Input
Amino acid sequence: MGFYIVQTLTGLSDASSLFLVACGLSLIFGVSRIVNMAHGSFYMVGAYLAYFFIDKLPQGPFHFWIGILLSALAVGLIGMIVEVFLLRRLYHAPELFILFATFGIVLIIQDLSRWLFGAEDILGQQAPGLSSSINIMGSYIPQYDIALIIIAPLILLGLWLLLTKTRWGILVRAATEDREMTDALGVNQTWLFTSVFFLGSFLAGLGGAVQLPKGGADLLMDLNIIATAFVIVVVGGMGSIPGAYLAAVIIGELNAFGILVFPQSTLVLMFLVMAVVLIIRPYGLLGKEEAPEHDNAPAPESIIRPASRRLKTAGAVFLAVILALPAVANTFQLVLITEIALFALACMSLYFIMGPGGMVSFGHAAYFGGGAYFAALMVHYLHTPMELTLFLAPLLTGCLALIIGWFCVQLSGVYLAMLTLAFAQICWSIVFQWGAVTGGDDGLLSIWPSAWASNKIIFYYLAMTLCIGGILILRHFIFTPFGYTLRACRDSALRVDSIGINLKRHQWFAFSIAGIFAGLAGGLYVFLKGSIFPDEMAISRSFDFLFMVLLGGVNSLFGPIAGSAAFTWLHDTISRINLWQLILGSIFIVLVVAFPQGIAGSIGSRLNKYFRDPA
Amino acid sequence: MTDQKNNYLLDVTDLNSFYGKAQILFDMTLRINRGEVVVLLGRNGAGKTTTFKSIMGIVKPRSGKVRFKNKEIQSLPPFKTCGLGLGYVPEDRRVFSRLTILENLEVGRQPARQGRPAWTAERLFELFPNLAERRHQNGGNLSGGEQQMLTIARTLMGNPEMIILDEPSEGLAPVIVDQLAATLLKLKNEKVSILLAEQNLSFAKRVCDRAYLVYQGTVCHESTLAELDNDQYEKYCSL
Amino acid sequence: MTSNVLEVRQLAKSFGGVKAVSNVSFDLARGQLLAMIGPNGAGKSTCFNLINGQLRPDHGTITILGKKANGLKPRDVWKLGVGRTFQIAASFGSMTVLENVQMARLSYHRQTTSLFKSVPRLNRDHAMELLRLVGIEDQYNRACGVLAYGDVKRVELAVALANDPKLLLMDEPTAGMGPAERQEMMALTSSIIETRNIGVLFTEHDMDVVFGRSDRIIVLNRGELVAEGTPDEVRNNRRVQEIYLGEEPV
Output
């Protein structure tokens, strides 16, 4: 009995910092419509700063709590700076670019934290006076957990008072409901946005700081928490603070008890809860259906034409170069070029759902890494030959995409993107945590091609055939009735519905096609590298793919190829430098600020001109 | 360079506005004097709402000028236009449904203007007694008429010198329309200038001094309401 | 077998206790152009969206071509043989004019999941024929997103006709058009009704269009049907005049 009570209380105390993070995210999204990827980083910084302040402050009865408060305030300030100097310039840019800018911040903070605080996990200090445990019917719970259980409802109450009893809170709620009307009533929303960013970031920092004695601080916290926070916000209902608390408690309890039932896969339970909630209440437990914001629709993609003669000639020349390369290139270069081709195929599959499909996936690494892990596991445990593996792995990935896609197409826009990210993170945690099967952090090693293909040059030709074939098939799909239907769904949901087309079913189908091809790329990747690690499934890999597609331009079919070549080269160059994530993050931000309407839009259209047939 | 200073409170000249590719306003021109109550009469789709949104800066006009108190405002964001003393009551009411009546009023509150007493919630409740009883209820739970009263009250909390009302009588029961007319006349006595859009002529006749007939995005006829030519009205505004 | 393409009986819909449409009944026969008019907030859009499947009725029946259509999704209403155009034209901006119509034909032939054929040649002749019908065949190769608004409305009409509908629902077909364009559009609609023997229900604010073109008119006010008849009957109806002149009935 005592054990169950303690487990319940542990779940509640875990829920506290989850709630703090999720409600900050929700507040910021409600007012500014920005999904702040860096919110998890603020949480991580909160933990590190709290450690630093508590360490430096003179010991006393309150130094622990003062340290926590100082850290939250500092994180709030960081959030404010990000809003004022970066996001404020981007409010009119496409959503995807704003997200990218915030992901740039994730990378920068990641490297800065490594530099400032070191790569070692940090054990948090104990709160003075709360460092012992309480005995509940024979089971023990740390006193600090009880403090955490009390903190969350207090913050909830404080937020409720702030939002209902102050002019500021009333304005925030008004702006969340109808920004245009709030504007017309004379409210200058610039400072409102800034202050909401402060509060949201403050809460994230506080969440990170208060969990310090329990969980310490490490460099994986940022992306781990953001995925959980997305799930909480989706389950609780976007913009609902009590909903966030409710969802945080559900997830917290689920983790506390799930560990008893499935010790390795509490995340699978989270996934099931989200599934049930989305089926019963698509807008979350306490969420309300959002009136669609009828703002500036994205500029329609240009019409597509079959390849011109010039383009076909260029393609033939390109193909000849690929064929001839092994004659001149060394093994290292061949491997690099093979890698580019694999990424190009994965990017093309992402482009397929993003460009024609209009669905942004933040979790494409789930399919790339999924294909890779399916292949590696088959070879490792079943000793399947390469040929069979390369056939089965994409199919299994397609099934994975079928499952994930089903949930994702229930939502649209940013919500859909958040779900893809959450699913990808769940897949990542499974391979990361389930060490007994997947090798965990150590990965799976010694997975090599069949004997006939073990020569690097032969493998090069094999990979090239499959990748170029895959890219051409995906390109062909864009010109088929299905590809057209997909674009039709993106252009006008209203119109497709009125000509008898089931939008969700087509989008779902597109997800699984993309999964199959990304899975093929992943499968090849394992045989190229001979090993696989969880990194290939991590969120930053998903963002790499997104970046490649954006770099090449979502408006052109060459985009994915050019983008993956450019990115792989860039990555290869800068990853030898210290703090390369910081540089990459800065490049993201600079590109987004410099080209708020699209990085490759202008470059792409210039390129297109050269490949058009003369009139 | 000639600076067109004049005595109009609101001076709209040659406004052209679009929704995407569709042009809605064609050289829309209107002038309102201080203290006047002016109505735009026209059928649905004539461009009345777009005119108002262009004045407020919610829709950015492609060309033309809007002057309020001799200050060009066509490129100002809505909150600055509002800050100059131009209040807006939209057609679809747009009360904040999850905020109470008192909170809705609070959103609209702006500092008082020189020489006028500030509107307070209590003063507004005298004007709109129905709202007083339900001050703690959410905006979303009010009837259509109450919502209309609330949007007007909310805009008045900004202490405007002029208010723009988009079809205030629409969808209201006759008794409520009578109350509304009485309220607007009280506001007129308080020296608030009013520009409204209407399809209900008898209502307009009760409260307005002057009318513009709007047809297909432009003004076709202008006259005082007392002298309004019935043929012109029939031609542009009725069946 | 009646000649009615649409029969509406005692249709009702409330939103949060407010009756948007109550007890509305009317018929539409083949070959007729029926206008639905009424002041703002009279329930026209609600009524329209109940028929096209966007909303589910609380009460009443909708029969389209002899089949019960209550509560069907828009895409299933379409399958009964209903074409729709929107107040704000909805087209596929990234496709050419021809492709927009081909797209609708693809759906009609249930080919939307095909991954083998290539679209550019599919259904081309039939689609071109529809473009000729609405008079924009010369623009067939332009992107829909760059067309003039009036032309987009024509594309929409061609798309709506692609499933050979027997009932056409047009929500403000002439909104956003100039006066000359409006008359052309309605002349086109009239000729389509005649040649294809279909029924058209439309809402409209332009009274010239309504009284000049329609065979019958139904008038809604506060969610109820207050008058029904030929243009002359409706024009002379005392109740309708009151509504439109804004005088409350005595």
In short: Chain B has one domain: 10-237.
